[in-house]
Amino acid sequence: MELYELNLYDVIEGLKAKKFSPSELFESCKKRIDSCEDKIHALITRTDDFAKSQLDENPAGLFAGVPTILKDNMCTNGIKTTAASKILGEWKPPYDATAWKFLRDAGAVLMGKANMDEFAMGNTCGSSAYGATHNPNDLSRVPGGSSGGSAAVVSAAYVPFSLGSDTGGSIRQPASYCGVYGLKPTYGMVSRYGLISYGSSLDQIGPFARTVRDLQLVMSVIANYDPMDSSCFRNKNHDFSHNENPSIKGKKIALVKEFQDFTLDAPISDAMNKIKKILEDEGAVITEVSLPIVARYAVACYYALAMSEAHTNLERYDGVRYGYTVNDASSLKEMFERVRSYGFGSEVKSRIIAGTCLTEPKRCEEYYVAATKVRTLIAQDFAKAFNDVDFILQPATPSMQPKIGEVDDDAMKGYEADLYTLPVNLAGLPGLSFFTGYSENKLPVGLQLIGPRWSDSELLHAGVVIERHTGDPKIPDLN
Ligand code: GLN
After folding, report:
1. Is the pLDDT reported for residue 413 higher than 90?
2. What are the angstrom distances between the C-alpha of 324 and each of 47, 398, 399?
3. Any ligand 1 atom below 6 A from CB of 396
4. What is the distance between the alpha carbons of residues 13 and 71, in angstroms, rounded to a whole number?
């Protein structure tokens, strides 16, 4: 077995026991990246030299010497951060995102910044200004998005874990497409400070890994209070320690009544049946909940809010403060126009325009304000459901991994495909995307378990129970 193939837990134990050194591990991961990156194109920036300089300082802490990769919308002090957009040019942030700071303080070593949809808008990685990422399990297919690069680097074993962000499904959908585990934490569990904002009331950072235990390890480091993010939890203790033998006996796990009529690709509905059976065998009670407002209005509500927030958040890219600019404009207006016309891709532009319309004074009540009210009703839908049940089981996506280029022209179809993930962000809930096995044509299939706010650690315990039956994903042979 090569060192790069080790899961996070084994990496930490191996380093502690001095079975191998941080530099040996670094070289093994670097070799893996060198040999696969031409095929997968998961990285926007490689940071080998920075990683070496970190190793020279003999990092200490729980993750001492553990290589990782961050989605390229997380600020890294002095290291190019693009959000996969031309508009940020060669911008180097002057500070670290808090989640990365926590990892860095715990000794983690940065190997690179991962590809993503531009400003995290999309679900294929196809809107990146840096080209598409390929799914390591089938190079002709998308890895999902927007955190497609972060999911691909864990699936292909560049590193044992990575960070992504999830505004409407961007951790859970690519995790399921790439056959890894991904957690979208409760809103407020992980600091958003230094995460390039898309929809600030929805954005949340979370981990990707190849086992649930590894997600627990990452959460134990990044789920920490940060005074720099006013939405970050305070005065709460979150225990992400691993329990060897968790039980879901007697837990009520629900399917959503309204979703039963919607079509799913066969491998996904097969996986639903398989996991239902596993949960029952483990003593859980499978039941049903009704989420009528979610089923009917969540997609429209999410896109109205996400686009409105995006249009405000992206106002700051004006050619003055960040990255790309032009020096020969004859007026300020011309500069803004030229910078923004060239700098933003078409999906981002259309969302800025939509967001502008949704929030302009004459229409604001009718659209943006109405969407905020619907959002409250959606949160109530879930709150009612969680009065009766412990978790909700549902797909992370209705369809299997499309071929690269197959879906990018049909934005509406992409929006609708987020139905299973985005309600979770609207209600601020945690969602675990877990691996269930492979389809007949060897593509990984994932599903999602959702819990009430702050139930992240129980959700992960339930994930451990499921994982006992499904086994870990295989690292694709890419040589
Ligand atoms: N696909 C959704 C969107 O484009 C979600 C993206 C995300 O979670 N960042 O908005």
Report:
1. no
2. 22, 38, 37
3. no
4. 26
From the candidates 28, 85, 146, 176, give the one annotated as an active-site residue.
146
Per CATH, which fold does 3-254+391-470 belong to? Amidase signature (AS) enzymes (3.90.1300)
Q: What is the pLDDT of residues 165-185, one digit of tens each?
A: 999 999 999 999 999 999 999
Residue 170: active-site member: yes
71 is catalytic: yes
Residue ranges per domain, the chain? 3-254+391-470, 292-383
- Could you report the per-residue pLDDT of 43-74, keeping only the tens digit for each? 999 999 999 999 999 999 999 999 999 999 99
**Crossing angle of the two packed helices 98-105 and 212-222, in degrees rounded to 10:** 100
Q: Is the CB of 203 under 6 A from ligand 1?
A: no
Query: By C-alpha distance, which of 141, 145, 217, 138 is closest to 175?
Result: 145
Coil, strand or helix: which one is 298?
helix
The answer to whether 315 and 86 are in contact (CB under 8 A) is no
Structure tokens at 166: 């999830």
Can you read off the two tokens belonging to residue 7?
């899961």
pLDDT in tens, 341-361: 999 999 999 999 999 999 999
- Calculate how far, in angstroms, residue 383's C-alpha sits from the geometric centre of ligand 1: 23
In percent, how much of the chain has pLDDT > 70? 99
Rounded (10°) angle between helices 8-16 and 212-222:
70
Alpha carbon of 252 to ligand 1 centroid (Å): 29
The residue length of the chain stands at: 479
Ligand 1: centre distance to CA 120 (Å): 6
Distance (Å, rounded) from C-alpha 231 to C-alpha 408? 33
| Interval 64-117: pLDDT, tens | 999 999 999 999 999 999 999 999 999 999 999 999 999 999 999 999 999 999
Residue 471 binned pLDDT confidence (cut-offs 50, 70, 90): confident
Cβ atoms of 427 and 379 within 8 Å: the answer is yes
Please spell the DSSP secondary structure of 91-102, one letter per residue. Answer: ---SS--HHHHH
Give, using CA atoms, the residue closest to atom 5 of ligand 1. 168
Mean per-residue pLDDT of the chain: 96
The tokens describing 41, both together, are: 């194109």
> Does any ligand 1 atom lie closer than 6 A to the CB of residue 450?
no
- Out of 170, 197, 308, 455, the active site residue is 170
Determine the pLDDT at residue 233.
87
d(CA 378, CA 370): 12
Task: Quote the CA–CA distance of 275 and 462 in Å, as a whole number.
Answer: 12
Per-residue pLDDT tens over the stretch 236-269: 779 999 998 999 999 999 999 999 989 999 999 9
Token pair listed for 104: 């860095």
